[in-house]
Design goal:
With 241 residues, this protein is α+β, with helices and mostly antiparallel strands. The chain has two domains: 63 residues, no CATH class; 154 residues, Distorted Sandwich (Glucose Permease (Domain IIA)). The protein contains four helices and 14 strands. It has an eight-stranded antiparallel beta sheet with strand order 9-5-6-7-11-3-2-13, with no helix packed on it. α2 runs antiparallel to α3. The protein is elongated, with a radius of gyration of 20 Å. It starts with a helix and ends in a 7-residue tail after the last strand.
């Protein structure tokens, strides 16, 4: 259980539109900012004073922007949510290709990769409602997220959901700069479509392995938003695999 002080801090972050997944970093930023401002007040050198203030402002603005956590509404357009696969990450679609997923879906899939820049919202959301039937954290390399080899070689958290006869697998992939994956889920958990489930600090990509019965309705180059943009639609909801 979290302490009362931490609970109050989480509530404050929520009121500010920030994610609780950034608690450790934001606390560190608060301390660093106080120190920098204190040094700026203490020093008599004008250029040092302005430099310290500028650094403090930059750190604060970057951190507040990075850890923002806006509310989102799924663009369902009246369609049943169980028929939709929603984007799990903000960013740009950089890859859509045929692939084979041997461990969870165990068959042909469409691999969709979403690249997140440091300026994107980094809170990840569940692409559909379902039970976590597969979870695997894979230690690996930290290649640049744009590198096609990063799909198979980078450190990543793999999450497999099952619902209504359908499976989907998605991965939070670490990158060259983004070396910390936050994913507090485990096998047996239930996630709702659009529900927050973690984040990647700072940047990187999310890969989705989508079964062939789902029709992809986005394309490479599209800018997408987690918990809002519909990525694909199931055409035969209710069939078992």
């Amino acid at each position: 259980m979290e302490s009362e002080e931490l609970s109050i801090f989480h509530s404050l972050l929520s009121l500010m539109g920030l994610t609780r997944y950034g608690t450790d970093v934001l606390l560190a930023v608060l301390v660093i900012t106080i120190v920098l401002i204190g040094l700026a007040i203490w020093t008599d050198e004008v250029w040092i004073k302005y430099l310290l203030i500028a650094v403090a402002v930059f750190i604060c603005v970057f951190s507040l922007n990075f850890f923002r956590d806006p509310d989102r509404t799924i663009q369902a357009n009246g369609e049943p949510l169980q028929d939709l696969i929603v984007c799990p990450a903000d960013g740009k679609i950089v890859l859509i290709e045929d692939a084979t997923e041997p461990e969870f879906i165990k068959g042909p899939v469409t691999l969709v990769s979403i690249f997140m820049s440091p300026l994107d919202v980094h809170v990840n959301r569940s692409p559909m409602t379902g039970v976590v039937e597969y979870f695997k954290y894979i230690k690996g390399e930290f290649l640049v997220a744009h590198d096609s080899a990063a799909v198979h070689r980078n450190e990543r958290a793999m999450i497999g959901l099952y619902s209504n006869g359908h499976k989907i697998l998605f991965a939070q992939v670490a990158g060259y700069i983004a070396r910390r994956i936050v994913c507090p889920v485990k096998a047996g958990d239930t996630l709702k479509v659009g529900e927050r489930f973690g984040m990647i600090k700072f940047g990187s990509r999310v890969d989705l392995y989508i079964p062939k019965e789902a029709r992809i309705i986005t394309k490479v180059g599209d800018v997408v938003r987690a918990g809002e943009t519909v990525l694909a639609k199931f055409s035969n909801t209710g069939q078992t695999q």
